[in-house]
Design brief:
By secondary structure, this protein is mostly helical. The chain has 3 domains: 105 residues, no CATH class; 87 residues, no CATH class; 39 residues. The chain has 12 helices and 2 strands, in the order αββααααααααααα. The chain has a two-stranded antiparallel ribbon. Helix 6 packs antiparallel against helix 7.
Length: 232
């Protein structure tokens, strides 16, 4: 279903919006802070109720958050809750929008194409080269992702298929660890006051995680993997 940009715009305050497309929201320069924050919260609220426009509104939120730079401390979590998004999605959207201005986005590509490139590269020339390639070769998002990861892995001296697979697996695991860390941070007041019995149960469930922490800490400091007897 095609996104109706005009219908979405009608639900937002007109002040400060220079241009809107399905791929982004260009805001007027020198938008007052109060007007900017009001616009951000309205886009977040719209994202929860609008159907069929999730990607467009993710891009709009990314542009609005990127516009505020560091001035919106805490706003990502607030917007994520209002929109029903994962905070990591908005952090990624903000990064992509800060690296790829609305005027540089390719209408022939999707928002997810831009995310694949914008999260992988910071150099504007590299970004433009990859967007041009994706459009010229009509790459699907999955094909673009594979090409980008292979390129990045090759640049790190890990171009073999086995090394690439390992790199992707490591990235996926780190992403899951980051999500678990955010969950623990949110519930800090709960687990800090667990009973001794609950703490013992948690330690039993986390035995693989504690082994992981021991191994990673040792490798980070000494570059070696501790033998199993050191982990007992």
């Amino acid at each position: 279903m095609q996104t109706d940009v005009r219908q979405l715009l009608a639900a937002l305050p007109p002040e400060g919006i220079d241009r809107a497309t399905r791929l982004g929201l260009a805001l007027a320069p020198e938008l007052k802070t109060d007007a900017w924050r009001h616009l951000v919260t309205r886009v977040a609220s719209l994202a929860r109720t609008a159907t069929g426009a999730r990607l467009t509104l993710t891009a709009w939120l990314g542009d609005a958050l990127a516009y505020g730079g560091a001035g919106g401390r805490g706003l990502i979590a607030e917007c994520a809750e209002a929109a029903g998004f994962d905070p990591g999605t908005l952090r990624n959207a903000k990064m992509v929008c800060s690296r790829i201005p609305v005027s540089c986005r390719h209408d022939a590509l999707s928002w997810t194409h831009h995310c694949e490139v914008g999260l992988a590269f910071a150099d504007p020339h590299e970004i433009e080269r990859w967007l041009d390639t994706a459009e010229a070769e009509a790459l699907s998002t999955a094909d673009l992702r594979r090409r980008v990861r292979l390129h990045v892995a090759a640049g790190r001296g890990a171009a073999s298929p086995a090394a690439l697979g390992s790199s992707v697996a490591a990235f996926r695991l780190i992403r899951e660890l980051r999500a678990a860390g955010r969950s623990l941070a949110r519930e800090r007041d709960l687990w800090r006051h667990w009973s001794p019995a609950a703490a013992r149960l948690a330690l039993e469930e986390l035995r693989h995680l504690t082994e992981f922490v021991d191994v990673v800490r040792t490798r980070a400091v000494s570059g070696r993997t501790p033998p199993l007897r050191d982990l007992a």
